[in-house]
Design goal:
Elements: E1 6-13, E2 23-24, E3 40-42, E4 51-63, E5 73-76, E6 82-84, E7 100-102, E8 112-117
Antiparallel strand pairs: 1-4, 2-3, 3-4, 4-8, 5-6, 5-7, 7-8
Keywords: Signal
Protein name: DUF2190 domain-containing protein
Signal peptide: 1-19
Length: 120
Amino acid sequence: MSQKTPLLTLTVTAAGAVAACRFVGFGGAQVTAAGAKALGVSTTSALDGDDLAIDVIGTTVIESGGAIDLGDDIVSDAQGRAIVATVPVEGEVSTEAVLAQALDGASGAGEFVEVLLTRR
């Protein structure tokens, strides 16, 4: 597993079950829509109503949902895992929320990678 250096970790109340190392939305629920905005990444798993620590600024570790290369822009898949952002066709605007940049690579889903959390 990669290292992490969070600069800001917030505690929220989990809204439903949340797996560790997944993107979590502003309402405390694990992200369930690909490309959705997120508050940060869960540091542990939690059940509905539990306190949940979320890394918001700095670096953190997240589970990959596919292959990732160093430096890739990262978005969420429908399970809250990290996947590579799609590049929009020229003249189009991306609807994906870029949440991080990859500091590690992954050869496929289920690996844990360090990312730099960003806001775009």
